[in-house]
């Protein structure tokens, strides 16, 4: 048995028993699990960065985070996201007459939750329902822009830098700058062989789901009033999904 892993779960179980509204101070955690304060501090820091533990800003006490709460309910949450997002995505599909895709992040992999196809003769469809490379799609990049710092670091450790897959980005600072630009802009564009993907992050932190919604279309149609209408409708749809899921 790996002792450090066992101790980390001891801390998580202790926080779970305490309840999210109460929390526990670091000295009490140290006493209850029988670990020295520096060791507890380090474990809590790691668990907080990864999103499994959170610290109350006023009391300084620790409690379980949204990500941990969501683990046991992931299938239910994904089903809930699908139920909320699908009718709104169908409306978006009807309004802009383009293919709409909702994607999510699980096990450091990009997944297509569902896709609603355009009925236009010239249309674009997502060909890979699962992909470990989040750099090569607009929705994948949007998901990366919203990941907690610790989870982003774990993804980069597994995947490496995007390099040729995204503006030849080779270092963390350049990548963070690109991700911050997505947050500021509110959407991301990805062009490939005449097709265009427009993605918008679905910031569902309270639900513990990292997801995005996107529109896929021939690049030739992304211009003028249609371009404005697609971006505006996509942003509005993402916000509508977020409001329902987070309330």
Notable features of this structure?
247 residues, alpha+beta, Beta-Lactamase, six-stranded antiparallel beta sheet, two-stranded antiparallel ribbon, 8 strands, elongated
CATH class placement of the largest domain: Alpha Beta
Total strand segments: 8
Instruction: Give the CATH H-level superfamily of the largest domain.
Output: GAF domain
Kindly report the average pLDDT value: 89
Any overview of this molecule?
The chain has helices spanning 3-18, 26-33, 37-49, 66-71, 74-96, 138-146, 149-159, 172-185, 224-246; strands spanning 53-55, 62-64, 99-106, 109-116, 130-131, 188-192, 195-204, 209-218. It has 247 residues and is of the alpha+beta class. The strands form two sheets. A six-stranded antiparallel β-sheet has the order 5-4-3-8-7-6. Strands 1-2 form a two-stranded antiparallel sheet. Helix 5 packs antiparallel against helix 9.
Quick summary:
With 247 residues, the protein is α+β, with helices and mostly antiparallel strands. It has helices spanning 3-18, 26-33, 37-49, 66-71, 74-96, 138-146, 149-159, 172-185, 224-246, and strands at residues 53-55, 62-64, 99-106, 109-116, 130-131, 188-192, 195-204, 209-218.
Give me the secondary-structure topology.
Elements: H1 3-18, H2 26-33, H3 37-49, E1 53-55, E2 62-64, H4 66-71, H5 74-96, E3 99-106, E4 109-116, E5 130-131, H6 138-146, H7 149-159, H8 172-185, E6 188-192, E7 195-204, E8 209-218, H9 224-246
Antiparallel strand pairs: 1-2, 3-4, 3-8, 4-5, 6-7, 7-8
Helix pairs in contact: 2-3, 5-9, 6-8
């Amino acid at each position: 048995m790996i002792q450090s892993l066992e101790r980390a779960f001891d801390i998580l179980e202790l926080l779970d028993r305490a309840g999210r509204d109460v929390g526990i101070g670091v000295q009490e955690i140290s006493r209850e699990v029988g670990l020295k304060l520096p060791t507890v501090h380090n474990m809590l820091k790691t668990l907080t960065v990864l999103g499994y533990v959170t610290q109350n800003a006023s009391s300084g006490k620790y409690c379980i985070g949204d990500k941990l709460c969501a683990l046991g309910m992931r299938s239910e949450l994904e089903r809930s996201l699908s139920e909320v997002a699908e009718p709104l995505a169908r409306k978006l599909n009807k309004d802009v007459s383009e293919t709409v895709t909702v994607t999510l992040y699980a096990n450091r992999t990009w997944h297509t939750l569902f896709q609603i196809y355009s009925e236009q003769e010239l249309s674009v469809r997502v060909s890979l329902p699962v992909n470990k490379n989040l750099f090569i799609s607009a929705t994948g990049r949007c998901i990366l822009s919203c990941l907690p710092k610790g989870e982003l670091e774990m993804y980069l450790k597994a995947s490496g830098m995007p390099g040729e897959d995204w503006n030849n980005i080779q270092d963390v600072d350049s990548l963070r700058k690109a991700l911050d630009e997505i947050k500021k802009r509110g959407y991301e564009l990805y062009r490939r062989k005449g097709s265009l993907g427009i993605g918008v992050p679905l910031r569902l932190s309270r639900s513990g789901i990292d997801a995005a919604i996107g529109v896929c279309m021939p690049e030739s149609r992304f211009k003028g009033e249609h371009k404005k209408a697609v971006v505006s409708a996509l942003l509005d749809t993402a916000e509508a999904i977020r409001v329902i899921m987070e309330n």
